[in-house]
Specification:
Layout: H1 2-9, H2 12-30, H3 37-47, H4 59-83, E1 87-95, E2 101-110, E3 116-125, H5 131-143, H6 149-155, E4 156-161, H7 165-168, H8 174-182, E5 187-190, H9 192-205, H10 208-225, H11 228-241, H12 257-269, H13 271-282, H14 287-299, H15 302-325, H16 332-351, H17 355-363, E6 364-365, E7 370-373, E8 379-382, H18 391-408, H19 432-435, H20 440-449, H21 456-474, H22 481-491, H23 500-508, H24 514-526, H25 536-547, H26 558-566
Parallel strand pairs: 1-4, 4-5
Antiparallel strand pairs: 1-2, 2-3, 6-7, 7-8
Amino acid sequence: MMIKAMSAKLDQQTQSRMEIMFNTAFYVASEGLAFKKFPGLLDLQEKNGLDIGIQYRTDKKCKEFVSSIASVERQRISEEVHNARFLCVLADGSTDKSITEQEALYVRYTGPNGRPSTQFADIVALESADAVGVTKGIQKGLEAVDIDNEQLKEKLAGCNFDGASVMMGKRGGVTQQLQAKIGRPVIVIHCVAHRLELAVLDAVKTCSYLNRFEDTTKSIFKFYFYSPKRRREVNEIVNILEEDVVYYSGVQNTRWLASRHRAICALEKHFPTTVMHLQHKAGTSDEQGQRAKGILKDLQSEKFVKYLYFMMDVTKVLSTLSKIFQSDKLCITDVVTSLETTLTLLEQLRQEKGPQYKKFEEGYCEETGILKCGKNNIQEVRLTRAGTSLEREFDSFLTEVKGYIDNRFGNLQEEPLSFFKVFDPREMPQERSHLATYGNLEVKSLVEHFSNYLTEEEERNITAQWPALRTRLVRQKAISPNDVFSNLLASRPDDVKDCLVLLDLMLTLSPSTAKCERGFSAMNHLKCNLRTTLGQNTLSDLMRMRSSDQTIKAYKPNAAINNWFSAAKTKRHIL
């Protein structure tokens, strides 16, 4: 009633002015701009003919407006969490620019549209980075969206963390402490994107030359990225050879395989231009010449180039899987299916050469050591130390990659996660005789495992309703499984409504913490070297807005305006 009364006091002119200011504040926050940009942006709009008034045109008011906008978003998430049947907690830690240990908290649940939704809960400055401190930080962060201990006991179905011992430790780790607080076990998932990276790193350690290959690749990127003069020189050669412009970005200490694939592809694309420039620099006697000579020795070797094309094929397969594992909508069943596809493609590379390596073989003459490469394969580069046979090394490496992936993801084939596979329409048999009993044991086992989350009526009805749900699922093989699941959860047909509880739980479980990683990228942008004193509450508000799916075009500020008026300790000045 208070909000309606305050809204009634706003005449059309005042409402219009406030909407302009809140829209501008939303833009400032969503773009990560400094609050001091706010007055200037209002001046610009006023110059363009908008009526803004004279009140509330300071950076401090912008901060207030942003707080109200974030508060409305927080309330929305809190309401959705309250209405959700299950919750999964995602958490990860990082250090910000002020050397403060931060813990980013996200919650995943099935939204009102039946689709999994991963939302920002809070970012918390930790008192300590040990298991006790992180657990306290997680509890504090969840309270920001009104998730208290009672809510956790009732709804927490799973946790998704990275593989750090402080999080996953079996003796006193965060997962153990959270389970002790709610008095029952939950599903704990080690982020699948991290697991994939670790599996590949394990395999790389078994191939001694790959470490040298990566060092040479990094040396090339550093050689050009930190020298405008060398970048200018190499692009002068581009004009002579009529090749693409050369650009080597900075070396990123990132985990994601996709970035490594892009780096290798960039090196192959600019290979002839880079070799020609390094040959020119190696002819000088200064320090740069010596560095160029050392890089060129490896870069121009046949073994390096063969590994370059081989790794382009391998990282293409792995980076595709990595991108899938970073999706916010990723489901447990997607993980298993994507892994099987990737392992099949890796085995295919082991048995026959990939497209990039075939391209190398077509352009390379072992007798002369000359490789045709570059745009349209018209450039020629003579490779050194020809005649190296690497088939056994490639075969061994691919075998190791497959083995380590199987090892790292083995627990997905264990109970109860493996049982969720029966809900995937892609896995269901077509023959009626095989379908008749398909999934009966798995569904019964899921009911037993998750009995703490179910009512007695649901426990009785789920196994009885499974045949009806199975029939619905098998008829929709051509549709994306996630779309099938979401449509069922949104419509909730009476004949399968209790069985859908298991689908709801399955979609709630998050396999990846990539959302947390993206949150830290936003944190580093917001709390940069120029804003190290940014307050914790303000950082949380800004990250909440950066995490929101709303665009400036679709944003409607009325709820935030009402929130701002109602939160006033004194009377607001009407514009």
